[in-house]
């Protein structure tokens, strides 16, 4: 069946190559920003860890420029799955349905109590950047979430993510496989991150992966993985999962992400065999019916931070009696470089000057 799709993959390849050629020549309009624009994206359809890597960059730039009084940063996403259109700036009354689950996560973690960070969604990224700079002229860094194929704006620095478990160099074009454009599109990247790597990945395997990627890009290659933190109550950010040693618990996972397997594997490794699983499609728009089972469940349910953003408003509608019986926690994750020297090397791409050096390198 897969090979019957080959002609369609050839047609898809021709269309995407032609589109990229027109953007490379700037026969299609390309916007160049006056501030540092950093893009995070992938070639593969599905989750490669864009959200936690964007969060890493938010933390990185806030720390790097913590002494700059007027420094401001913005995240700009398409807002996949939202029920609105156009430019939307997140504020204290915004919901996930208005901006999408991932931008909502950015807002709650970084912008809610920090005037240095603004979270924006706009399907037209060039327009979004211009509006950000109009509203917040002190903005020095804009992070484009999931924008590797968004060619209408040229980033100063583009990060391509490739899932260690599903590397792009072993995949095929849609609809035969899961990649959105030719593997050679990787040449546009200024850095390639092999995401979701095992934290104990051997140097020999790293060399093999680098050699395979070198066929498509000369960009530096970095290996990143996830560190998981203590589970946090979805309804109470101050409550951590505290298990009694002499009690036997049953566990379940509740997710709406592209690839739940790594999350499942971590939970089973940490907490033991799962008794229940509820896995929905990526960016699932949860309904009260979807989570009704939680009211009478004695299972400890574990979910992702992205899912918690959408589950929280629904859980808050439960009665106080129902809430008191709930046991649902999200597991925070954090991106880490497998090699601290590589992390320092990556940081050298962002010298002081907010993009001036990058412009001369890549512009």
Mind explaining what this structure looks like?
The protein has about 375 residues and is of the alpha/beta class. The protein has two domains: about 1-225 and about 335-360, 3-Layer(aba) Sandwich (Rossmann fold); about 230-330, AF0625-like (Rossmann fold, 3-Layer(aba) Sandwich). It has eleven helices and 16 strands. Helix 4 packs across helix 8 (about 305-315).
Summarize the structure.
This protein is an alpha/beta fold and 363 residues long.
The major β-sheet equals:
9 strands, mixed
The computed structural class is: alpha/beta
CATH topology of the largest domain: Rossmann fold
Termini separation: 44 Å
Number of strand elements = 16
Question: Can you name the CATH architecture of the largest domain?
Answer: 3-Layer(aba) Sandwich
The total count of helices amounts to 11
Shape: globular
With strands numbered from the N-terminus, the spatial order across the biggest sheet is 4-5-3-6-2-8-9-10-16
Percentage beta strand: 15-25%
Which CATH top level class of the largest domain fits? Alpha Beta
Mean pLDDT over all positions: 92
Q: Which residues sit in consecutive blocks of at least 5 with pLDDT less than 50?
A: 354-363
Radius of gyration from CA coordinates: 21 Å
In helices, the fraction of residues equals: 25-40%
One letter per element, helices H and strands E, the order comes to HEEHEEHHEHEEEEHEEEHEEHHEEHH
């Amino acid at each position: 069946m897969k090979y019957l799709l080959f002609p369609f993959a050839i047609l898809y390849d021709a269309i995407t190559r032609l589109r990229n050629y027109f953007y490379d020549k700037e026969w299609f309009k390309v916007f160049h920003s006056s501030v540092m624009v950093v893009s995070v994206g992938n070639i593969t359809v599905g989750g490669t860890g864009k959200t936690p890597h964007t969060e890493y960059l938010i933390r990185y730039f806030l720390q790097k420029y913590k002494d700059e009084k007027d420094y401001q940063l913005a995240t700009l996403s398409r807002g996949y799955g939202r029920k609105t259109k156009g430019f939307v700036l997140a504020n204290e009354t915004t919901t996930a349905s208005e901006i999408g689950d991932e931008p909502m996560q950015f807002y709650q973690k970084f912008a809610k109590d920090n005037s240095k960070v603004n979270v924006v969604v706009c399907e037209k990224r060039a327009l979004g950047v211009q509006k950000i700079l109009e509203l917040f002229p002190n903005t020095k860094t804009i992070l484009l979430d999931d924008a590797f194929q968004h060619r209408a704006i040229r980033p100063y620095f583009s990060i391509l993510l490739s899932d260690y478990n599903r590397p792009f160099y072993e995949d095929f074009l849609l609809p035969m496989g899961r990649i959105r454009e030719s593997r050679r599109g990787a040449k546009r990247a200024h850095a390639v991150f092999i995401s979701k790597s095992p934290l104990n990945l051997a140097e020999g395997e790293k060399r093999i992966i680098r050699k395979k990627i070198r066929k498509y890009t000369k960009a530096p290659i970095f290996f990143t993985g996830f560190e998981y933190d203590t589970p946090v109550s979805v309804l109470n950010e101050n409550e951590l999962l505290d298990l009694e040693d002499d009690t036997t618990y049953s566990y379940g996972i509740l997710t709406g992400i592209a690839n739940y397997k790594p999350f499942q594997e971590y939970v089973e490794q940490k907490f033991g065999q799962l008794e229940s699983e509820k896995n929905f499609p990526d960016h699932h728009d949860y309904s009260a019916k979807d989570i009704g089972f939680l009211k009478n469940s004695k299972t400890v349910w574990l979910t992702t931070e992205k899912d918690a953003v959408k589950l929280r408003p629904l859980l808050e509608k439960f009665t106080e009696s129902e809430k008191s019986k709930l046991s649902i926690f999200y597991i925070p994750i954090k991106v880490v470089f497998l090699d601290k020297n590589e992390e320092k090397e990556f940081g050298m791409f962002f010298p002081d000057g907010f993009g001036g050096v990058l412009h001369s390198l890549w512009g």
